[in-house]
Amino acid sequence: MRLLGSQPARAFSLAEITRELGISRATGHAILTTLTAHHWVVRDVATAAYSWGPGIASLTRPADDRVFHGIVRQLAESTAAQAFLAHREGNAIVVVDSAGESASGMRIDRGLRMPLVAPFGRDYIAWSPASAQRAWLAGIGKPSTPLYRRITAVLSEIRDRGYTVERLGREYRQVYTALRALRGDGEPDAITARLARAFADLTVIDVLDSELDESDTHSVATISAPIFDDDGVVAMSISAAPFAELTAADVTRLSEKVCAAARRIEPRLASPTS
């Protein structure tokens, strides 16, 4: 893990890993198979190379995520909207803390588990290696050409600007209601994969900066920013959930506050009580 974590964006071949560690190929393969099963390592099917897996982020979070409640509450107060904190558990994203209320009455419940399958979890996947992004996208089957192009453009823009925008529409409400009803462990299965695929096909994913000025207002459910650990891996995310019509200026203002909250949490990940 130290070898892969030293260059989280790079993929290593089995030969490189075993040579560096001085172990046999059989031993290396057995270890990597186990790590891959836990999503701590990602194996690229096309190249058979291994890279730092997003599941490792769950090992670095504090035991009590509510230690950041003050920051979550301040974000809610400054945005006049619900704010919530989430982290990754395997192939699911779990809401672990929240504060405030949105004027619309809609809210994201603490304990909600979202499957980490396209198009959900973009704030976690945008900075992952290409192999992890392909695995994430493959969770909904082979995407159409327009959907593939849209997701590619969205992930690139998220990396550039540092946050995601979830559109609020009928499809979002229906999928969110269905996920709440399903509950379970949040791990992707046939039902959640079909829900995610339907959502991806029926809605326009995210709001690109070039689209902000195309209309006076935008229906926005959430604005989310990643929280990076010391290794540059996305360990958590923090969001504001206005569930409202926002102008381009509103989106910019809220995104700045959300990103600022994320940056305040990052130095405290290693020592959350400091």
From TrEMBL:
Keywords: DNA-binding, Transcription, Transcription regulation. Residues 1-54 form the HTH iclR-type domain. GO terms for biological process: negative regulation of DNA-templated transcription. InterPro entries: GAF-like_dom_sf, HTH_MetabolicPath_Reg, Tscrpt_reg_IclR_C, Tscrpt_reg_IclR_N, WH-like_DNA-bd_sf, WH_DNA-bd_sf. Residues 50-271 form the IclR-ED domain. It comes from the Bacteria. Signal peptide: none annotated. One of its GO terms (molecular function) is DNA binding. This is Transcriptional regulator, IclR family protein. It comes from Mycobacterium stomatepiae.
